[in-house]
Amino acid sequence: MRAAKELLGELSYQVLQGDVNTPVAHLVYNTKEIKEPCLFVCIQGAVYDSHGAVEEIVKKGARVLVVQRPVSAPGHVTVVLVEDTRYALALLSAAYFSYPARKLKIIGVTGTKGKTTATYLIRSILEKAGISTGLMGTIEIITGKECIPAGNTTPESYVIQEAFAKMVENGCQVAVMEVSSQGLMLCRTAGIPFEIGIFTNIAPDHIGPNEHGSFEEYMAWKGKLFRQCRLGLVNVDDCHWRQVLQGHTCQLETYGFSQEAQLRAEDLELVNRPGYLGVRYRLSGLLEADVEMDLPGRFSVYNSLAAIGVCRHFGIPREHMAAVLKGAHTKGRIERFPLPRDFTLLIDYAHNAMSLENLLLTLREYHPKRLVCMFGCGGNRSRLRRFEMGEVSGNLADFTIITSDNPRFEEPLDIIQDIETGIQKTEGAYVKIPDRKEAIRYALEQGRSGDVIVLAGKGHEDYQEIKGVKYPMDERVLIRQILEELGWEHSDKG
Predict the structure, then answer these.
(1) Which helix (H) or strand (E) holds 212?
(2) Could you give the CA distance from residue 176 to residue 232 in angstroms, rounded to a whole number?
(3) Residue 494's pLDDT is what?
(4) How far apart are CA 403 and CA 439, in angstroms?
(5) How confident is the model at residue 151, as a pLDDT?
């Protein structure tokens, strides 16, 4: 038990009623998780506002309420008013878990693309160098001894601080995390003393209801990270980097292909062999080295430069970094599945028009005999996304296989029809196969020498959501089953 005042220590607040010395045992912000006696933080969300549920919250055991507008509460309950309860939750959570972020070196990665891969590359290099490193992002939270599936790219502040506390307990020295614009806007990362912040790139995304009102607003929220870190590593090849970094308070280091970059990639070579796509380049500037990666495309180079830029500050030898980068992979991000055939099979998370376009343009640079794209679209999401993705694949792929993704509460055939509407605006050849396993089987059976086949949309996901139920479905498992059924020998080691 602690006095509420201890948790409120770093906040500006006004006591509307009661006593902040009231003892509490728990910090809670979800009405379904109330434990007695607790300090409860009322959050005004896009759909639900717990300020309107005070009677229920108190009845379940709340002894202290933190609110951002006055509420009516019984006399025995302490009510504390703050300007923003989301910001308050972040600082309360840090205090509740005894400020674990202060015991770690925190690395934050923000940008439209590349966050997931960059975080995994950084963690791989540090871990191989003997620096225990936790991770938090789109795929999972790694606390040193456990891996927890992620719910959000940047989770709620309480979850972040709880994860940091587990990392400290498990002996981690560093934590690397994806920092989304939503996470920054909703104060989930407030109070975190970032050692290094990374800007990968930016393009219009997450703009609309309940997200960002404009591209300018989106950039402004991304830039918040660079008023909260000691050092910023910035991709200077992105034309918007100065706008994003406007008002920054950190030191800056730059990376990219540009001659003005302090950490540069030069003499880029695309490596293309049957069943294999990679890149090779010369690192120059702050470090000199030859780097090769088993990942395709220029964006793989950018991600590796970001990782090198971070790990340089931890004193990792360049030879060690190059060795780790050679074999580094991220689940569901241009993930190559080895086949006993001379065509390339890739799994990727691209699930909107922009990410699919970038993926297909990258793969086209390798001049495949045919570029085959299989994808579906999620249900209960914008229909416009389906039209756009259909048009992108029709224009950039030589052949498209339209299938099902997460239909949720929609009919798969209705979603497929929308994708078909988009692809019919192009001259692209396509086929519709609603069953995803059968679609993958078709792609493999029709594969030709020199083809590049990409299964897009699911990436790291290992389920398919239908009518509110998540059924197990991992594309890697499906591929192995199909290869066995076809009698093809295979090795996951490549």
Answers:
(1) none
(2) 14
(3) 43
(4) 7
(5) 83
- Name every residue whose Cβ is closer than 8 Å to that of residue 345 and which is 6 or more positions away in sequence: 336, 337, 339, 443, 444, 447, 453, 454, 455, 479
Task: Detail the DSSP E strand segments found in 286-428.
Answer: 289-293, 335-336, 344-348, 371-375, 399-402
304 and 177 in a single domain? The answer is yes
Domain of 21: which CATH number? 3.40.1390.10
Same-domain status, 339 and 444 = yes
Give the global pTM: 0.93
Look up the domain containing 399 and give its range: 335-486
**Residues 341 and 311 placed together within one structural domain of the fold:** no
For residues 143 and 146, give the distance between their C-alpha atoms in angstroms, rounded to a whole number: 6
Q: Residue 37, preceding bond cis, omega within 30 degrees?
A: yes
pLDDT, tens digit, for every residue of 343-388?
A: 999 999 999 898 999 999 999 999 999 999 999 999 998 899 999 9
CA distances from 331 to 140, 459, 476 (A): 11, 7, 10
What count of residues does the chain have? 494
Buried b (16+ CB within 10 A) or exposed e, 435-456: ebbebbbbbbeebeebbbbbbb
Instruction: Give CA–CA dist 434/401, Å, rounded.
Output: 9
> Quick one: which of 447, 444, 478, 439 has its CA closest to 462?
478
Single residue among 96, 131, 156 that ends a domain in this structure: 96
Listed in sequence order, the DSSP H helices in 227-376 are 241-244, 298-311, 318-327, 353-364
Q: What are 398-429's pLDDT values in tens digits?
A: 999 999 999 999 999 999 999 999 999 999 99
**pLDDT digits 0-9 by tens, 104-156:** 999 999 998 999 999 999 999 999 999 999 999 999 999 998 999 988 889 99
Contact between 325 and 125 under an 8 Å Cβ cutoff? The reply is: yes
**Single-letter code of the amino acid located at 254:** T
| DSSP single-letter state for residue 87 | H
Structure token pair of residue 82: 């703050």
